[in-house]
Structures are given as structure tokens and as C-alpha cells.
Amino acid sequence: MAEPALSRVLVAGASGYAGALAAVLVDGHPYLELSGVTSRSYTGQRLDELFPHHRVPMVLEELDLDRHTEGVDAAIVAYPHGAAAQTVAALRERGLKVVDLSADFRLRDRATYEEWYVDHTAPELLDGAVYGLPERYRAELRGAELVANPGCFPTAAILALAPLAGHLADVVIDAKTGVSGAGRGATDKTHFVSVTENVTPYGVGRHRHMPEIDQELAAAGATGLVATFTPHLLPLDQGELLSCYATLREPMDVHGAFEAAYAHEPFVELVDRPPGVRDVRGTNLCRLHVHVDPRTHKVFVFAAIDNLWKGTSSQAIQNLNLMLGYEETTGIS
Ligand SMILES: NC(=O)C1=CN([C@@H]2O[C@H](COP(=O)(O)OP(=O)(O)OC[C@H]3O[C@@H](n4cnc5c(N)ncnc54)[C@H](OP(=O)(O)O)[C@@H]3O)[C@@H](O)[C@H]2O)C=CC1
Ligand SMILES: CC(=O)N[C@@H](CCC(=O)OP(=O)(O)O)C(=O)O
């Protein structure tokens, strides 16, 4: 059989954690060619100087929309929320397929986005954007032009709870995350001295991922559900663990539902003991452990992902594979 045609891919925002890893994964992919890497603050520096563990010797450049899109098939945009939408729109105007790592196209409802984020600068693109969780939207992702890569907590939460969604009366999601989830810029909260030998809850009662989790659990069949979600910051560089405690409306075959949902998924593994973040580090895997409490019939689901991989950049490659017609696991298995 003939080899698939190569696609050229631009990574915008490659001086950040997510963009840099996306560039590495594009560079190592057998059918993708890294066409350029952009940054505003590190123009002229090589990616492997900025991140010595990332062996991509390409020079970061200021984004030039005309030059960087010529002969290019797709882009991964790794900008912060609010900053991404206009660049995404400009890249789409020039015909590129786009995976946006920010939240700018994740929420289907513009008013909800504007309530939790900022005013939307490209609302006309919302309807055509596909939510980039392949385990839920594989058919729509094949051939999609604009993909909204999910948030890291929503990725793990939805994979952990979608098989139960239609039966959920209530759910508590207790999440733990490494510091790279907050991006490269250090703040008082992410400073080494604040984080080391410490565990702190944050975003209590209001975290940007709440409407995204509720939106996608509703899309999976939940009715009238508002999940209780609290993340905690741990002294880890990367990795995320979600402990989910679900109350069901009625009895169901819980283990059967998870088997049915994930038996053929290449990147979701059901495991016999609770997973740790180290088990999935540097992989596109989500490991799930499901336990039904015999006393209360509550369902405990533990989900581990690497926030920079399945939570962001390797999931972006999984999405690009589907968008560009390659086998879904190429370059990330
Ligand atoms: N880190 C994670 O675990 C996850 C991140 N994401 C999302 O991925 C995106 C990137 O995150 P992450 O890499 O962690 O963040 P970083 O802060 O590490 O990187 C942000 C990147 O965007 C560029 N940038 C910042 N502000 C602007 C702007 N106004 N216009 C254009 N470029 C800008 C920065 O580079 P420069 O200043 O050089 O231009 C840098 O390249 C975000 O939307 C984030 O929410 C999603 C899931 C998980
Ligand atoms: C430690 C930390 O701050 N983590 C981030 C999660 C980042 C993420 O998943 O992404 P989006 O910002 O793209 O939604 C947070 O809680 O906001």
C-alpha cells in the first residue's frame, strides 16, 4: 500500500509548554512535517535552546500569517484563552485546518463562554468547531476543519464519567494536578516555594472547567447535572489524577458500561487497581479504575492522565490524525 501523503503543520505559541511538546510530536510524526514554530517573546531562539530536553533545532519566529501559511495544511494554536480566537480565524481564512488548544471554541454557547472567559472575537466559528475528544466525537473529527482541544481536567472527567452520564444523580470530582497545567509563567501560587511540600485547593466554587465538564456530561446523556469540581495543586511537574464519586439515579451494570465504552479504545485503559500519574506519564493514555461501593452503591472512578499529553498536546495529534485522514494512533502510540 502507498504511504499516506505528508501534511505540513505550523505550531503557533511553541515557546509555551503545550506548544513546545506539540512541535516535538509533530516533528517525530511519520506523516507530519513541522513547517514552523512561532513565538513573540523568544523570536530568534531555537526550540532546543529554550527547552533542552526537546530535541527540535528549529528557530522560533514571529508569526507572519502569509509566510507561515503558504503550502501549510494545518496548525496547532497554543495561545492562552481569548488570545487564540483571532489567530484561529485568520488561519482558517487562509484554508488551514486548525486544532486550538485554548478554550475559545470549546463551549458551544457564546454567552456561557463570555460569562466564564472574555468577549468572543470569532463567534462565527463556534458552530463549526468540533470538540476534540476522539472517544466521544470520532466521526465528527474525521475531516473536521476546526477542532477545540478539550481542557485537561474535562478530558479526564468526561472519560471517567461519560459511561455513567445518563444515570448520574450527582457527582463530586476531586482533582489533583501538576504545576505545568498553569503554563510557563510563574505566579505566587505556582512559585516553587508555594508549591513544594504543599497541596492546595484552588478555583473553589468557580473554575473555568466547570461549564465545559457540565456541557459534555449533558451531551453524553446527563440531565440537570451540575458536577461538584475542585482541583488541587501538587508539587509535581506534570500529571493529573481525578477521583470521582458518583451517585446513580438507578442501579445499572457499571462495569459493563465501562467495558462497552472502552473495549476498543486505543488510549483508554481500564485497570484493576487505582492508577497513579506516573503510570501514564509521557503517554496519550487515560487509565481508569472503577469501584462500586457495596454499602452505598456509589461509583468511584479514578482517572489518571498526563496533562501535557492526553490533556493537551498528544490529544491534539490524535485529533490531527483524524482530521487529516491518518490512522488515529500514528505518532503517539
Ligand atoms: N499546560 C497544560 O497542561 C494545558 C494547557 N492547555 C492550553 O494550551 C494553551 C497553551 O498552554 P501552555 O503551553 O500551558 O501555556 P504557556 O503559558 O506555557 O504558553 C503560552 C504560549 O502562548 C504565547 N502567548 C501568550 N500570550 C499570547 C498572546 N496574547 N498572543 C499570542 N501568543 C501568546 C506564549 O509565547 P510568547 O509570549 O513567546 O508569544 C506561549 O508560546 C492554553 O490555551 C492552555 O489553556 C490546555 C490543556 C492543558
Ligand atoms: C495547574 C493549573 O493551573 N491548571 C490549569 C489547567 C489548564 C488546562 O487544562 O487548560 P485550559 O486552561 O486550556 O482550560 C487550571 O486549573 O486552570
From TrEMBL:
Keywords: Amino-acid biosynthesis, Arginine biosynthesis, Cytoplasm, NADP, Oxidoreductase. Residues 8-144 form the Semialdehyde dehydrogenase NAD-binding domain. The active site is at residue 152. Pathway: Amino-acid biosynthesis; L-arginine biosynthesis; N(2)-acetyl-L-ornithine from L-glutamate: step 3/4. GO terms for molecular function: N-acetyl-gamma-glutamyl-phosphate reductase activity. It is found in: Cytoplasm. Its main location: cytoplasm. Pfam families: Semialdhyde_dh, Semialdhyde_dhC_1. The keyword NADP applies. Belongs to the NAGSA dehydrogenase family. Type 1 subfamily. Catalyzes the NADPH-dependent reduction of N-acetyl-5-glutamyl phosphate to yield N-acetyl-L-glutamate 5-semialdehyde. This is N-acetyl-gamma-glutamyl-phosphate reductase.
